[in-house]
Hints:
Strand content of chain A: 25-35%
Number of domains of chain A: 2
CATH superfamily of the largest domain in chain A: Dihydrodipicolinate Reductase, domain 2
CATH class of the largest domain in chain A: Alpha Beta
Shape of chain A: globular
Distance between the termini of chain A: 53 Å
Oligomer: homodimer
Strand order of the largest sheet of chain A: 3-2-1-4-5-6
Radius of gyration of chain A: 22 Å
Amino acid sequence: xxxxxxxxxxxxxxxxxxxxxxxxxxxxxxxxxxxxxxxxxxxxxxxxxxxxxxxxxxxxxxxxxxxxxxxxxxxxxxxxxxxxxxxxxxxxxxxxxxxxxxxxxxxxxxxxxxxxxxxxxxxxxxxxxxxxxxxxxxxxxxxxxxxxxxxxxxxxxxxxxxxxxxxxxxxxxxxxxxxxxxxxxxxxxxxxxxxxxxxxxxxxxxxxxxxxxxxxxxxxxxxxxxxxxxxxxxxxxxxxxxxxxxxxxxxxxxxxxxxxxxxxxxxxxxxxxxxxxxxxxxxxxxxxxxxxxxxxxxxxxxxxxxxxxxxxxxxxxxxxxxxxxxxxxxxxxxxxxxxxxxxxxxxxxxxxxxxxxxxxxxxxxxxxxxxxxxxxxxxxxxxxxxxxx
Amino acid sequence: xxxxxxxxxxxxxxxxxxxxxxxxxxxxxxxxxxxxxxxxxxxxxxxxxxxxxxxxxxxxxxxxxxxxxxxxxxxxxxxxxxxxxxxxxxxxxxxxxxxxxxxxxxxxxxxxxxxxxxxxxxxxxxxxxxxxxxxxxxxxxxxxxxxxxxxxxxxxxxxxxxxxxxxxxxxxxxxxxxxxxxxxxxxxxxxxxxxxxxxxxxxxxxxxxxxxxxxxxxxxxxxxxxxxxxxxxxxxxxxxxxxxxxxxxxxxxxxxxxxxxxxxxxxxxxxxxxxxxxxxxxxxxxxxxxxxxxxxxxxxxxxxxxxxxxxxxxxxxxxxxxxxxxxxxxxxxxxxxxxxxxxxxxxxxxxxxxxxxxxxxxxxxxxxxxxxxxxxxxxxxxxxxxxxx
Lengths: 389, 389
């Protein structure tokens, strides 16, 4: 199979190396950045890829512009497409699926969610004969690395982030990681594959910007640590829910044992029960390995991971499937105001003017809304799901 | 697709129910035990299945005789075959693969290893473009249930086994589970799929017959618990190794957090890194869900999980990849004799005439051979891999 690659950075170079090591594949053209062409097979002009005789293009550039323009042109030119670009698929996956269907070529994106972890392909296989009750997990290595370092090594947030950058886990601009947006994009991909619904922006995303050493200290006193988790699922009435938020989890929960930049993707099938997949969620060779598995899938004839039925839909985070307790830390005055909307089950401790409490069960929507209200008044608040605390 | 089912027990009935719930499949004939025919679609005579117009037969009888006769006849009659029967595939997988290839039909057996966990299909996909360094894990729910109950609840071996039987995890005759043979059969399937080699009987199998409450007590004092693990892999020189043995594992290891009858299947890919899959390793609906995923695969055209190159091969458990420390418990005299062959690194404790020690690193073959020697002299010994103890 003749293959071209868009991008020669961390992932693109790994894909190129793995294709060299596997027989049956010839790399035609590799699109590199201006001034980085060092080999004959490289080009700095996208048009060279468009007119070459490759049957399959692998996009490893990242970002939406010009990735969307380039990938849609490749599909229009009758080339199959593999991408590891979650921002691209979250923003334009349905557009790309439609072009690919019209042209009769493949559009596959396993590596865009979970890195080496084959969660999307396994969900796609499972949903054909089982009902997926919910799916999600720890889907961002950078934030997990930061949370794990803060808890296990007592590192400050800023030092942990700097270390994550040094190790190549975090981007130069880590806003999408820290804010939970990267996790949400992966949840969007999961939701498209599992439910044929791309959740629109009526969902709740809480990242890890607010977490502090004191939160870990109090969580530890409860036998817990803190992780960032994204989830989506269907309520009993068939409505989609989708959200991202920190979770205070005990040793009995699988999240607890996910360390460093490891990811954990899970789903519960009505028949299969809880299924968990752990592995490297990012990095050159793990991501390249997922892309190479997709190359095999394309070679074997897989056309799509998305159904033509896939549509944008509203996520509703106020169903009973979205109800749980929360661990909350804020100042005494804000906690008092919060308590008028969300009942406190118990105060865990008070120190330095801060109150740490466990709420009664509320919906995700109500908790995220209440926290936004506290912040609108200029106060700080940290909250995390606390199912077992 | 027209489907017939051999067997209407725990798994067969689950498959039947799931096929009813999915459109696109019609169940033609279900083979039941003598005296159990209660519906028109059931038969007590295998010949009725052989002559019906089903394109696919799902074998859920268990055992080798008459399962091998029935399944090979179905393949010869041009019907595709799905089975969850690990004993059948370990004993006759290569024979069945050859018949299926000759007749151009499918032979798929995901559910025979790991229950709901899709380890075999994911290994098959991964190995096409990555090198599988090793694969294995906690592959038997009955033994994990017993070990977990002994550690977490202080249950005796016999009570835990009785409870496992009551809950339907253990067979009336649990010898294959307890001896490690069931785990080894699953390792054999993994080895066939990952390496095209069916390990012959020159391997080392240690089950959980020798484990005692005292072993858990001492393991706990080291911050560890005990699990039963099966593994296979390739040495640097390309030789296969394959073995089953208890493992003393610390909280830092994934094995530690596998409770009750959950299974954990893992592999390390040269590029993907360590990949872990957790889920229900047995039970009606988990196993049926894996079979239904295979039904989709057959419907989509998958023919084989085994390569025509797959052959019986010798497993060699004396390579450096098979070297690690061991936790050993035996009487003082036997420990002295053992120490002449396997160096002791430290004695953990001595009580009631028993010595608990950690050895220096030795090969799996040397440790299993030395333990067999102790037993030949009529003494008791328990040993478990202890990489981090």
